[in-house]
Specification:
This protein is an alpha/beta fold. It is built from 10 helices and 15 strands. It has a 6-stranded antiparallel beta sheet with strand order 2-1-4-5-6-7. A 6-stranded mixed beta sheet has the order 8-12-13-3-14-15, sandwiched between helices.
Amino acid sequence: MGGLYLEELSLSHFRSHRAARLELDGRPVAIYGPNGAGKTNILEAVSLLSPGRGLRRASPDEISRKPERLGWKIKADLRSLHQTHDIETWAEAGQSRSVKIDSKAAAQIALGRVARVVWLIPAMDRLWIESPEGRRRFLDRMVMSFEPRHAEAVLGYEKAMRERNRLLKDMVRDAHWYAALEAQMATQGAVIMANRLTTLDRLASAQVGAQTAFPVATLQLQASDDKPLPEGEEDLLAALRDNRQRDLQAGRTLIGPHRADMSGIYTAKDVPADQCSTGEQKALLISLILANGRALSEDFGAAPILLLDEVAAHLDAGRRAALYDEICALGAQAFMTGTGPELFAELGSRASHFEVTDDAGTSQLKEHP
């Protein structure tokens, strides 16, 4: 069987899980139990099989089970396009995260070459009404699902910008000090903008003609302060140079990809997403995740692993069933959480079902047929 899915997942001293093991077969995974039992912790572990800090953006020490604080480890057997990879990621107490793929040490970015993981968590429900920073982070996660090296461009741009901002705060006026930093920001910034715009085009294409119960979202990229948003390397370099005096007065860089914002419109109603109801905003988010999955299925050759935390919130039974049908049609291994088994009744035998309970602060995992 091809596709992309976990065959086995093992956790050791990972948050509330002293030890846990899931044997899987590619079907969606329904995880239910009371709040605080440790359901989301399983999804977080899967998210760390991709580059970055995972769905909670936690530091390695924050993840380690307390009170032991011995460090933590995740092991997974990943089926990826007719190949099986042995993946390990862990952190010793006080150390940064390490990765091995097929028993060989690897950089985190290498995870993006064998697995694509996309998630939707309750914190994202406020996406359309929160700050532009949250929308940029949401967009960049989708970008990285297509182009894992996008993270390197973002890090390179931000590093150069921090150095430039230091010069601005110190009121350095000599142009020679800025030239190399601005050239680096322009190079990396142009890559960032191109990747973001390409991703929006891919999402738009994946929504056109799709048979879906979820509303289409029209996305646009613009400056968060309504200023011009330079895209190409030459335009960005010129903008940084021309804006230097204004940046000196502000003590920070006021133009560039870090000022971009993603807006959304409920296409059928022609209503901005931030003016939609709570349920409509959730449906638009789910629509984007499904579009991301469809586009990745064409681009990567298999649907990504989906992490949908408390996905049933704000969905009625009809739309919930429609979501499950779309996930199964996509062929995605979706890890979904909810408080009770009734939320996944429409899935039936199309999914694996696991119950998570809390035993004096330690999560216990049980599979149900």
